[in-house]
Design brief:
The chain has about 170 residues and is an alpha/beta fold. The chain is built from four helices and five strands; from the N terminus they run E-H-E-H-E-H-E-H-E. Strands 3-2-1-4-5 form a five-stranded parallel beta sheet, sandwiched between helices. Strand 4, helix 4 and strand 5 form a beta-alpha-beta unit. Helix 3 crosses helix 4. The longest helix has 18 residues.
């Protein structure tokens, strides 16, 4: 399978579903890690441009551990909107480019506006990625990818019903 992890910021995927993505890789599946925002505003002292470079390097190194391709959408932290048709088309193109069977992304119920915007865009774009008369750079998919939500920080209104065990011998 092709698995697309799509997070708002560098570190969201690594913290919230890095083990799951690693497990998919161990099972022989192709993994792509996509980041909507640059992570440029997440520090009190490091300037945004410098921080964005640090965060990108860290995320690329994390992706390399599981031989995942990393893709950057180029938004700045706090500047992504889930209701924009232009943003939806960017997400449609990403999904069409990757052609995932499964997408892991943020829950629609989350404390961070970037996370909820990404969740909304992924849900809307996943279905729309199959509409052939909606033209983007890549052709329409034949099937809507499955979407699984990653647990938000603090477990806000999140009741998991799927668990990934990376080492079945510990149970």
């Amino acid at each position: 399978m092709r698995i697309l992890g799509l997070g708002a910021h560098p570190d969201d995927l690594e913290i919230n579903c890095g083990g799951t993505l690693a497990r998919f890789h161990q099972l022989g599946h192709q993994v792509v890690m996509a980041f909507a925002c640059s992570g440029d505003k997440g520090h009190f002292r490091i300037p945004p441009a410098e921080l964005a470079e640090i965060r990108k390097q860290e995320a690329q190194e994390a992706a390399a551990v599981i031989q995942a391709k990393s893709i950057w959408l180029g938004y700045q932290d706090g500047e992504i909107v889930g209701e924009s048709l232009q943003n939806r088309d960017i997400f449609i193109d990403l999904i069409r480019q990757v052609q995932p069977d499964l997408i892991l992304t943020h829950s629609p119920v989350d404390y961070h506006a970037d996370h909820t915007a990404v969740s909304r865009l992924v849900v809307d774009a996943a279905f729309m990625s199959t509409v052939p008369h909606l033209k983007t750079r890549y052709p329409a998919l034949n099937d809507v990818p499955q979407i699984y939500f990653i647990e938000p920080y603090g477990g806000m209104a999140f009741q998991p019903d799927v668990y990934v065990i990376s080492n079945p011998h510990i149970l």
